[in-house]
Specification:
Length: 206
């Protein structure tokens, strides 16, 4: 009799964990929050990576346009006597050149770049083949950063072959599983190049 009583008491106690487990499995409260928590991190990482990639490519196109537009001033002889600061003034606008009393209008490049950190290289070459070889060279650096003071600036004269290059270290913030856009330390090195022959605006100099 005592054993039967013990058996009747023990049976419900053994069923309590199983019933609780089944009720827990059937519960749907908070399922959406749990599911969102599982996908939120990779979703946000992918979203920011897409946005950053788009910005990098857009910035590269803006820099290419700036190199072409400013290089055209050299090609036509308007920048034949420019210094680096004069070139930067035309590139970015404002009063960064020697003629500060006549500021250039601000350009679209200011919206994306810190103009003071854009590396400017203007070189004269004997042939387009030599210019193509020179364009592939890495920019001079100091402490892992582009060193503007070591870059050449020679706008040449009439009929000279000129290569204008702009360099910029674009910061990369999103790293997706180690596969990111960095190619210059932790930054992305943007390079814009414009190669042309100066117009014959005077006696040939090359």
């Amino acid at each position: 009799m005592l054993e039967r009583i013990r058996s009747l008491i023990a049976t419900p106690l053994r069923l309590v964990p199983a019933r609780a487990a089944r009720r827990f499995a059937r519960q749907q409260d908070g399922a959406a929050a749990v599911e969102f928590a599982l996908v939120a991190v990779p979703f946000l990482a992918l979203t920011f990576a897409i946005i950053e990639t788009a910005l990098v490519f857009y910035a590269g196109q803006v820099l290419e346009t700036a190199a072409t537009d400013t290089g055209r001033m050299v090609m036509t002889g308007q920048g034949a006597n420019w210094s680096v600061s004069d070139f930067q003034k035309q590139l970015c606008g404002g009063t960064s050149g020697s003629n500060d009393s006549n500021p250039a209008p601000a350009t679209a490049i200011n919206a994306l770049f810190n103009c003071q950190k854009i590396g400017i290289s203007v070189q004269t070459y004997a042939s387009f083949a030599n210019a193509a070889t020179g364009d592939s060279a890495a920019p001079p650096t100091t402490g892992g950063n582009i060193d503007q003071t070591k870059m050449p600036f020679a706008p040449g004269g009439p009929n000279c072959i000129i290569a204008v290059q702009l360099y910029y270290q674009w910061p990369v913030y999103v790293s997706l599983l180690g596969d990111n856009l960095s190619n210059f330390g932790s930054d992305r090195l943007l390079v814009a190049t414009s190669v042309f022959r100066n117009e014959p605006y005077g006696p040939p100099a090359c």
